[in-house]
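User: I'm writing a tutorial on reading structure tokens. Could you give me a worked example: one chain, its sequence, then its tokens, then a sentence or two explaining what the tokens reveal?
Assistant: Sure. Here is the example chain.
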Amino acid sequence: MDRGTSIRRARRRGALGWLTAALVALALAGCGAWESVPGRTPSPQKAFSVPERRIDSSSIAALKAFEQAGEAVYRLGAGDEIGIDVAARPEISGRHLIGPDGQITLPIAGGVEIGGLTREEAARRIFDALSPYYLDLFVTVRVDRYGSNRIVVLGRVENPGVLQFDTPPTLLETLAQAGGLPLLRKEQLLTRCAVVRGDQILWVDLARLLTGDLALNIRLQRNDLVYIPDSFDTPVYVLGAVTTPGVYRLTPQMSFLDALSQAGGPTKDANLNRIHVIRPDEQVHLTFSMKQLLEPDPSLNIAMEEGDVIYLQRSGIAKVGYILQQINPFSSLLVVNQLASQP
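And here are its predicted structure tokens:
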């Protein structure tokens, strides 16, 4: 081999080495700038709790506190169909529909208001209205169809609208008739609902109710409004190096592993040594490794709350590989040419 050939080969090796060093330096620089994730906050574990899977029965005292059935007797209301029987007076007996103003119209006597009265009280008022025109009256009142126990159900249920019941229903009975149990569509939600009564709004924790806390199965009153919000009102975010990153519906007693499995679990590029769980509402940031979770440390399978963010970083090797793939193709071509030119 002559001296000129040796010099050319040395120059090629020098150029190849310089290019390789430049690419490695670029990759390492990219590793530092690829992801910038803040560190954990001080004592973040205090803000998280392990999901409670045990179902505790409610106490009798708690059940009575939530049970608001009102009076034992039924009171007539608008929409009820009643039958009036006046002994030996078929001309004034018959069926009547109580109007929105709570009144019925009787022959000769005209309008009589009976809305809000019991059957016995309504019979007495009808007697008082007819007694100036008839003697020796005996009046009874029966309910042929209950139409005033109306509950309005809105939101993500199968059958929203006005529902009617023979007696004041419970919350579970209302949801069942509205097609809310079971909830089959992904937009539906089983974590909370609102009960609107006049100018008051009561939020009920359905997650607790449906896992056995029947003290929350309150008895509704006529004209109550029940609202089931969208699932997107209670999101959990699973982002980063997971199979299907995105927004997921918070389900009753959802844990970290529940949320991670819904996102398809970590990808092969995920850095399992540094998993981030962020709770923006409380400004806390918890980090742990999958090894800690599986060793096992059950306290790390924390209960998820609305708005929580799970984030998995890419591993360092995966980031380098990705950056090398994104380098200018002319640089890659130069490397190939340099290698091909070697004897």
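What the tokens reveal: The longest strand covers residues 270-279. The longest helix spans residues 3-34.
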